[in-house]
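Let us practice reading a record.
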Amino acid sequence: MTIASLILYGLVGLFLTLVYLAAGPIGWMLLGATVTMMFCALMAICQPKPAWMQIYWVVSLPMTVFLLLIYLIQAIIFTLQYIQATSRNLPQDKQTEALDALIGSIVSLILLAVISVWALRLTWSYYCYLRDKQLYDEQHGNGNVNVVVYNNQQQPQQGKF
């Protein structure tokens, strides 16, 4: 679940913090989402409660869709540039550059989509595990197995008033 996502979003958050801060409101939202996701991922690991994974899921899904849209728009822009380069009969090196940019953007889009689906699937799987574990513990009374319960009830003594 969250180890791969934590590393992915953690690196993005660490290396791009200054860029996010300088980028304006969209960068601030991405930075806030990254920090929120890192916090929820750490809390889900330290305190395995389904609520942390629900918050993580709610934040990570729109952020992942937003990143995929950015890469899709980039691929569309490079496609239009390649079409313009070939239709205007630009020199071969310009057409090659446009084609390389198009191929690179499509490969990065596919790679990001595969990694994103994998990360979201792991997140959902870990959430289901935590949810089922909590339900099992609640139904069977296995809250915390490390808790010692003392029975201090005094038994009435027979024959003495």
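A brief commentary: Residues 2-140 form one domain.
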